Amino acid sequence: MGLMGDEFLKYYSRKDVQHRLVEAAQNREISVRYPDGGFGKRPDILQYENEVYNLARQGAVSFHFSQEKWSDPMQLKPGMSRQELQNLRIGFDIIFDIDCKFVEYSRRCALLIQELLKMEGIGNIHTKFTGSTGFHIGICFESFPAVIEGREVKTLFPEMMREAAEYVKEKIRNDLAAAILDVSEWREIADATGKEIVQLKNKEGRFNPFSVIDIDSVAISSRHMIRAPYSLNEKSGRVSIPIKSINNFNVRAALIQNVETSIGYLDAYEPGEAKNFLDNVFMHSYSKQQKKEINEQAGLLKSFKAFEVPKIAIKDEEKFPPCIKLLLQGAKDDGRKRAVFIMINFFLQLGWNLEDIESALLEWNKRNYEPLREGYIRSQVNWFRKQTTQARTPSCSNEAYMKGIGVCKPDGFCKFIKTPAHYTLKRAQNIVQSSSARKAKMKE
User: Rounded CA gap, 360 and 32, in Å?
Assistant: First the structure.
């Protein structure tokens, strides 16, 4: 294998390195990679420390493990159904894979992700250098709630990972753009990436940071692999090492001769600390789905034109649909944040002002099995103050909302409507029409 090969073997002969690799491989599918870029057999596992050196002697340069944790990884096989995979899966970690050619851009991105996760209440954030120019930011599955929004969390891979990546990208987008432009000017970025300046901009003409950096989410599927901690990177020759401080990290620490193994990876967590973050990921996903519906369901939008926002707000609860009446009684289980989203849209369509909506929601919050933070409700109302598009409650056919929360209990009138607001507006219109008809009949 030559001098470089001797260095690989010497590195993988270290007992501390072997221990860390086996530790990280518990309940995971693993695969090795060879100098030519090819992968070893799958599925495979790593149980004993001496296996690391033996695989290296057979030519393995790097080790990779699955994001998912399995009860028996060796039962995995190609072509398995979603249900078969779920039966084997015991969990999965969320790992944000920052992909960029430039370490300094990756560093800025990793810092912003860490800051966001801390703000969302996550104290145990695991970071490692990829060995090349990126970072992996990880959250342990053990910090997730067992059930969220009525769904068993372990069944939500890869969708939750993809949605979490999209949520994070949306939240850090502006700050990341500013951070990269603080490091390099437009022309420097264009020259370094080989892109025209126009290619670095978004539709509004502002710098799009994700034109030069990505948080990989599209390629994620079941049995997705990530480079294991303390594995060599076959391209750079450096090691993928866990780190405590991104600010103080120096790439030289990842050179084979400098590697220390004092830090574990994905080995610390606080039960439930990721719940608020995952709640927000779900809400972001639902909001995105609603926008998609607005764009796709042109026929449904036309039906709304007959129901303009009333000049006098409708506050008679007798005209509300069964689902809204149930929501107003307070959430008995998960679904509080979706309920806030539904009710703000609902009340706006009925002509309520945002001050009245905020007061109603704060009072409603007291009836929940576990009240939301008042700051969350106020922030959601403030978000709607900035919107220019017309409010719209989700369609009754959308499985994620009224049905997903468990409040879809239709009455006889529901078969004539398409959204909760449609129900109340149509009932109010029918009442007005009936009243007018009675008056006309009396005149006759």
Answer: 57
